[in-house]
Each structure stands twice: as C-alpha cells, then as structure tokens.
Automatic annotation (TrEMBL):
GO terms for biological process: phosphorelay signal transduction system; regulation of DNA-templated transcription. The keyword Transcription applies. GO terms for molecular function: DNA binding. It comes from the Bacteria. Residues 150-215 form the HTH luxR-type domain. Keywords: DNA-binding, Phosphoprotein, Transcription, Transcription regulation. It comes from Streptomyces beijiangensis. This is Response regulator transcription factor.
Length: 219
C-alpha cells in the first residue's frame, strides 16, 4: 500500500528560532512536511501563490504584511489553500478576524507543541480548529451573535488604516509611508489623523503602543 503524500506546508514567521521550533514539531509527523519558509507576509503570499503548497501557517505580527493581511490576500489568490493562524495573542478580535479572512484555525504559540499538528490535520479535513482554551467562550459568543442575527464584531479600522498604523509604529515617516504605498504624503497624514480620532489616541507613541497591544508589531 502506497503511503499518503504528506501535506506540503508553508511556514511564515519573522523569527528564525520560532520557525525552526515549529518545523521540528511538524516534521516529526510522517503526514506533514515544510516545503517553504517566509519571514514576512508579502513573501508568504508570493511563495504560496507560486504553487506547491497545501497549507500556510502564518504568524500575525510580521513585517510588510501581517498574517491576517496575507491570509486575506491568499484566500482571494489561492482559493484551495488551507490557512492556519499561529500567534502569541490570545485575542478575541483576532480570532474573529481570522475566521473572516478564511483561516481554518487559530493556534497559540505557547501550546503549539500540543495543538499545531492536530490543527494542521483538521485544516486538511476542512474542519475548523480553535485552541481548546478559547473554544467554549469564543464559539459560544460567535454562535450567539449569529443566532441573534447580529454581525460578528466589525474591524475598528480599515485595511488601509491598518497598513499605515503598522508602518507608523515601525518608525516610518509620512513621506516614506507614501512612497511604500504609492500615495501622497497628504493622504498618509489624513489617514493618520483618522486613526488618532477613531482610536482616541494623541500621538505616534500612543499609536505604537496600540499597534503592539493588538499584535500588529512586536515590542
């Protein structure tokens, strides 16, 4: 009897040590193999879009594109690709966001050695996986909202504002952000003013603290 072909995995995390540790967990299993790695969201999108990958495991807080931004793009570009979010953030909003962008599961790094292999297998069976500690509260809330005909919590900020917030928090000037996103400095400043107003913050320092708190960048 021929052995089943292992699931081909793309692993994206901006920390080499994390990738190495996760790779060891996955490659200890005969049905899983890591065929590609990326250290930022944009590279993850490029590699997964090129083909040869069945499952993408994406960290949330990565340079250039977050894991959620990459997941959103990959869901459009590679509809058959399964996606898992691997994160240090036990965060309800990011759980909902992960579902909305097409991820099959949400796994905490702190228990990856326990949960990640099963999450991969669940994703390949088209079954959702949410880490056990969150399952009861988060799934109940999600089902309650759906049952009442109420929407899942909306994004606090738009995708473009999220991009700009991340770049501001990383220390880029308005001109540099404009150059990266192909928009004018004035447009960047307008988005930045909107962010401060929406989030009730005062300056770049508070924007940076907010970005760290919600997982857009790491401290």
């Amino acid at each position: 009897m021929t052995a089943p072909v292992p699931t081909r995995i793309l692993l994206a995390d901006d920390h080499g040590l994390v990738r190495r540790g996760v790779r060891l967990i996955l490659e200890n299993e005969p049905d899983l193999t890591v065929v590609a790695e990326a250290d930022n969201g944009a590279e993850a999108v490029a590699q997964a879009s090129a083909g040869g990958v069945d499952l993408a495991i994406l960290d949330i807080a990565m340079p250039r594109q977050t894991g959620l931004q990459a997941a959103r793009e990959l869901s459009r570009l590679v509809p058959g690709l399964r996606i898992l979010i691997l994160t240090m953030y036990d965060n309800e909003q990011y759980f909902f966001e992960s579902l909305k962008v097409g991820a099959s599961g949400y796994v905490l790094k702190s228990v990856a050695d326990r949960d990640l292999v099963e999450a991969c297998r669940s994703a390949m069976r088209d079954e959702p996986f949410i880490y056990p500690g969150a399952e009861t509260a988060l799934i109940r809330k999600y089902l309650d909202l759906a049952g009442q005909g109420r929407p899942v919590p909306d994004r606090a900020i738009t995708e473009r504002e999220e991009e700009i917030l991340k770049l501001v928090a990383e220390g880029h000037t308005s001109k540099a952000i404009g150059d990266l996103l192909f928009i004018s400095t004035k447009t960047v400043e307008r988005h930045r003013a909107n962010l401060l107003q929406k989030l009730g913050l005062r300056d770049r320092l508070e924007l940076t603290r907010y970005a760290i708190r919600v997982g857009l960048i790491e401290p």
